[in-house]
Amino acid sequence: MTTGFRAIPPVNRILEEDAIVQLIxxxxxxxxxxxxxxxxxxxxxxxSNGAEPPDLPALVAEIxxxxxxxxxxxxxRVINATGVILHTNLGRAPLSDDSIQAMQRAASGxxxxxxxxxxxxxxxxxxxxxxxxxxxxxxxxxLVVNNNASAIMLGxxxxxxxxxxIVSRGEAVEIGGGFRIPDVLxxxxxxxxxxxxxxxxxxxxxxxxxxxxxxxxxxxxxxxxKVMGFTSAPTLDELVEVGERRGVPVLHDLGSxxxxxxxxxxxxxxxxxxxSVSAGVELGFFSGDKLLGGPQAGIIIGKKDAVARAxxxxxxxxIRIDKMSMAALAATxxxxxxxxxxxxxxxxxMISATEDELRKQAEAWADVAPNAVSTPSRxxxxxxxxxxxxxxxxxxxxxxxxxxxxxxxxxxxxxxTPPIVARIEDDAVIxxxxxxxxxxxSDVRNxxxxxxxxxxx
Length: 457
Ligand SMILES: *Cc1c(COP(=O)(O)O)cnc(C)c1O
Known about the structure:
The chain is of the alpha/beta class. It contains 20 helices and 17 strands. The strands form five sheets. The protein has a seven-stranded mixed sheet, with helices on both faces. Strands 13-14-17-16 form a four-stranded antiparallel sheet. Strand 9, helix 11 and strand 10 form a beta-alpha-beta unit. Bound molecules: pyridoxal-5'-phosphate (PLP). Pyridoxal-5'-phosphate binds next to helix 8 and strand 10.
């Protein structure tokens, strides 16, 4: 027992090691000392449980490993070969070159974010972006906040605090990450009134539920699930008809904020902000980093007075969007205004990639990867958009060399520099070229060559 403790290398001795001296130079003495002490504490615990302490080289190697992990440049660039376009775990939408430059411009110096350069007076960070958003959606006004979840909270708090909000029973859903419509309503100070049934709800159900306490009708897009079979839901036009007749504003959570028609790509139609506006909703809410293809943001569009009420609510300041996201969003919206979204916005380039291009790429990778083939498959939209909707693609399929070893291969690809995230199907590693950015193509090819070299050993 005591000999175990005595065998633990002392701090002074550890600090003399070359590798540790280099770590101290790269980071700081205090930071490295902290890490050493933490590690030694853990070792003492395991020694008191009867384990042997590590020798000095092993301990130094462990400290190096931990410091490399903890103080690396983060988040790391990762290559998404999963075929899931809006991969929430990998940061949703990658940005266009123009958006990245706009972000850099906003970040690297001062900007006219809140100043009118003509008058030299204070301006609003919202006026420019709001005008662009109105232009692409046809809305009277727009307001941009941190994300769609906060946009919905703000809209409800501004228009329906202390009042009842009518929601279809089939739409009182959980969006993800604990964001549940009933909870959001409660948090924003409104009361949920559910109408209809899980599968069938009619406009007349809303009509019948309206009382003098009704603050709004809320329509929530089922963006991450699908109800099939014997179903019915009122159209937005029908809801607006009820709302206008009864003097109740209709709010619409669109989810994705898809400004382009998805049907030419063989996908189901996705609600479009332009359609919400022409249907006459009071407010519409959508994300910036889903099918819009921009940065994280929550966009509120709608009638001038309603947007003004949201803008002047104290919550608006609490969920204010930052300047870098704002800059990236403005640049993304310009792609739509210039009619160049499918060529400039990465997720739309991915969605519109042709099977021919994808097959060529999958074949080229299959030529260098161990025992691989190219084969038809499906890519997903992901990110809580278009559930169950897929696009035909071609993938490179690398079969497991021995049963159950696909995960080992996938792990090897994840430890590549840069890491490559693939998917596993039927004990084979699958790489979908659709979600791999053109600039990442050669990194994938080199990693596959390495995999082949390791396999032939
Ligand atoms: C994704 C989504 C949200 C949340 O949007 P965030 O921008 O992630 O906050 C809300 N409602 C719907 C219908 C969604 O699909």
